Known about the structure:
The complex is a heterodimer of chains A (426) and B (155). With 426 residues, chain A is an alpha/beta fold. Helix content of chain A is 39%, strand content 15%. Chain A is built from 15 helices and 15 strands. Chain B is of the alpha+beta class. Chain B has a single domain (2-153), classed as Sufe protein. Chain: A, CATH 3.90.1010.10. Chain B has six helices and four strands, in the order ααβββααααβ. A four-stranded mixed beta sheet of chain B has the order 3-2-1-4. In chain B, helix 2 (10-17) crosses helix 3 (65-78). The longest helix of chain B has 15 residues, at 83-97. The chains are: A alpha/beta (426), B alpha+beta (155). At the A-B interface, helix 13 of A face helix 2 of B.
Amino acid sequence: MTTASLPNDRTFPSPASGGGLGRGLDPRRLRRDFPIFANNPDLVFLDSAASAQKPRSVIDGIAEYYRTDYANVHRGVYRLSARSTELYEEARDKVRRFLNAADRREIVFVRNTTEAINLIAQSWGPAFLREGDEVLISELEHHSNIVPWQLLRDRIGIRLVVAPIDPTGGLDLSSFEAALSPRTRLVAVTHVANATGTLVAVERVVQLAHRRGARVLIDGSQAAPRLPVDVQALGCDFYAFTGHKVYGPTGIGVLYARLDVLSAMPPYQGGGEMILHVSFDKTEYQEPPHRFEAGTPDIAGAIGLGLAIDFIEELGRENILDHEEELTGYGVDRLSRIPGLRLLGAGQRRLGILSFDLEGVHPHDVAQVLDRHHVAVRAGHHCAQPLIERLGLSGTTRASLGVYNDEADIDRLAVAIEAAREMFAR
Amino acid sequence: MMDLRELYQDIILDHGRRPRNFRTIEHPTHFAQGYNPLCGDRVTIYLTLDGDRITDISFQGRGCAISTAAASLMTEILRGKTIGDARALFAQFHVRVTGGEPTEALAEPLAEEMERLEPLTGVKAYPARVKCATLSWHALEAALSGRDGSTVKTE
């Protein structure tokens, strides 16, 4: 069996198998395709926003690739290397379709979203920004969309401007518009906020930014696993996401950049793979995307990501969105009934993330009790310290959803939260 | 898996809910802040020393039940103790919460105080929580080392 044939051999049920929330998904049946649940029978996994579990097709597909087709890419004339290259580039095609990018050369494989953003900050930044130019981010951002810009600020003297959130935790579009200035060269915002689940109106952000001639980067880490993404419809210049949150392996991520933008960017790292010709005096660089993929890439990771995309497409991204929305709604209703529990982002359209404060109980104590009930959640600032502090908190407890979660998981979460409340209530 | 109540014993829940010496000292001779970057928790330890004896000790800050209880118990135990006593207790406490067995026995009165810290040693089964139990002690050490007003991290 070859890796390429794996998509047809998948064992997960076809959509419309009925039952559960979300018209097309059956989470209980889907769980059988995630070996983690067979090996941890009591697990209620509600930390997919940190990293999603992996379906069998991805786990086995990666192993199968190493067993059957492995060799380095873009080098050997022998058949195995050609085969490996073909599979690696096939994965790029899958990503192109996943984002509806216009051209496969717009897809750069990186390690994760963090690396994608750093690539822009270190390649595009110094090439196109001058001292005093502004990068506009929002208060909702993950540290990975804050710190790279601070590094760039310290290096070339750009200004980092932060658009505020409104009192309910959504991006305040009028304040955002007001924060745009003639010096704004880049707007970098999240699509779905990782600490609160808030869905940002990125279409509007792109319109407003482009009207001012600014480029737009969207951090799609939390959006890519949850809703259909069409970079052409969005009109953004950059879009970044990571493989391990879309049910793929760790170590692989994607930077999408519009071809004209990408073609004008200088290399980010130097090495093999990204060159046309090297002498000690001068080096000619490859065209995108290879210009930005120095060294041997994570070949198996890219192939695994391709299989994860197959998995998602097979389920149907509209079905996944329905599932996430309905289960989020169920979770909001269920958790809101717990006395002393305050959900972040009330009144905002949230997706797949339930972040809350339990009065008088520290998030780590909540998470500890939840763990005793085999409910896995994240506690703390979720790498969004400025946002959490802006909301007057030092941390929250965050439950986040995946395709394998259902109402029963939310019910067990609620029971465990009640137990924590009982234990620590003053 | 050990029972959760071994981690959250009554004494910890009690001190977590109603911390003792939870106040500032107006003119401390020593103070320092402890910061746990993992969870963002902060605790400030205030000390009044007369020679090498701790005549007053208090704390402020926000943290989980374990870090609050650990700070509270620490302040109760250390009032009236010498700097040497405090360091000896911390050394032994540190070994116990990280799952080790102390090689040296403490002098009798200190050994008794060590007993009072025993409920906190439940964290040894939860590696992610060890720092919650030691945060206030690290801050104390920073204050005693004359790094006044400094922030010590648990990393």
